[in-house]
Task: inverse folding
């Protein structure tokens, strides 16, 4: 039986890591940077910053990742307290909904500021 | 040599940061695009078109038939706009004006062109081609606007264009094809958006 393969987004593993620059250190432990260095996690957080709630299926389709891949990355974001996960039933069908937490919004804003600062610092 | 290495590191860091920003922007655009098109709106617009097809069928005068369709289109636009607005209010954390503006910028010129062609052909023998023209213009508009929306919207635009091309060769079936395309396609693709893209 043919297995349906989804196009995987770049994880950025081959790319150089973003460095903290003076005045824009992400946090003492570098947790934000480590967590958001992955494209899938960055995509999940960015998508949830726009939409109040997205289901697992919506996120999977929007980001073009596999179920297992999304599940792993979403769990990491949930453990870090950046996203909230609610499981319920729509009739007999299980439904998983994700939403962004205030600390997730702060993390994304700080990450965006950090990247803008990086671009400004390295240009010219 | 050391200067070259520093420059190379600077460039790759900047590229990486720029790529990340572009990725975030595209992820947000995709979500905004999916939340600003209402599947329920599509189903309702399709239903209005089917009712219009039934109501306009006994009318023998082509201009009068088309006039009924113009009134129905006005109602359908209001319904589509209202349901999209409700979907955005329900799902998005803020009103995504950017995709709404881009959607309108793609659709409105085509609707305007269709209106101009309608006025030009209304009193002549070319009136029989109006249903096909409407399908073609609407399809082009939806296909262009679909660039900023989810896949079903682009596919629906493409189907409208195909429907328009077919209707050009069969002008006597024009009004029936309006019912099939504006009714059937809106309902099918509206249901797709409704069930797969959050309502």
Result:
């Amino acid at each position: 039986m043919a297995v349906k393969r989804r196009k995987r987004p770049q994880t950025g593993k081959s790319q150089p890591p973003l460095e903290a620059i003076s005045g824009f250190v992400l946090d003492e432990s570098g947790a934000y940077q480590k967590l958001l260095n992955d494209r899938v996690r960055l995509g999940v957080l960015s998508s949830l910053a726009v939409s109040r709630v997205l289901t697992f299926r919506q996120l999977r389709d929007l980001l073009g990742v596999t179920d297992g891949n999304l599940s792993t990355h979403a769990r990491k974001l949930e453990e870090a307290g950046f996203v909230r996960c609610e499981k319920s039933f729509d009739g007999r069908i299980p439904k998983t909904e994700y939403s962004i937490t205030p600390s997730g919004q702060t993390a994304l804003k700080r990450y965006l500021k950090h990247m803008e600062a990086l671009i400004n610092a390295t240009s010219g | 040599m050391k200067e070259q290495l520093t420059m190379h590191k600077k460039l790759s860091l900047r590229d990486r940061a720029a790529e990340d920003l572009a990725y975030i922007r595209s992820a947000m655009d995709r979500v905004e695009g999916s939340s600003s098109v209402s599947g329920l709106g599509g189903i309702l617009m399709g239903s209005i078109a089917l009712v219009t097809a039934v109501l306009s069928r006994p009318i023998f005068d082509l201009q009068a038939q088309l006039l009924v369709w113009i009134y129905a289109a006005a109602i359908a636009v209001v319904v589509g706009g209202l349901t999209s607005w409700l979907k955005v209010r329900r799902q998005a954390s803020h009103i995504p004006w950017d995709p709404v503006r881009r959607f309108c910028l793609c659709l409105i010129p085509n609707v305007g062109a269709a209106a101009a062609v309608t006025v030009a052909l209304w009193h002549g023998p070319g009136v029989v081609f109006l249903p096909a023209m409407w399908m073609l213009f609407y399809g082009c508009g939806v296909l262009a606007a679909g660039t900023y929306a989810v896949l079903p919207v682009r596919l629906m635009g493409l189907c409208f264009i195909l429907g328009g091309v077919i209707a050009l060769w069969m002008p006597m079936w024009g009004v029936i094809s309006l019912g099939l395309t504006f009714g059937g396609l809106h309902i099918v693709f509206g249901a797709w958006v409704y069930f797969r893209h959050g309502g």
About this structure: Chain B touches chain A through 29 residues (CB under 8 Å). The mean pLDDT of chain B is 86. Chain B is about 85% helix and 0% strand. The CA atoms of residues 72 and 130 of chain B lie 16 Å apart.
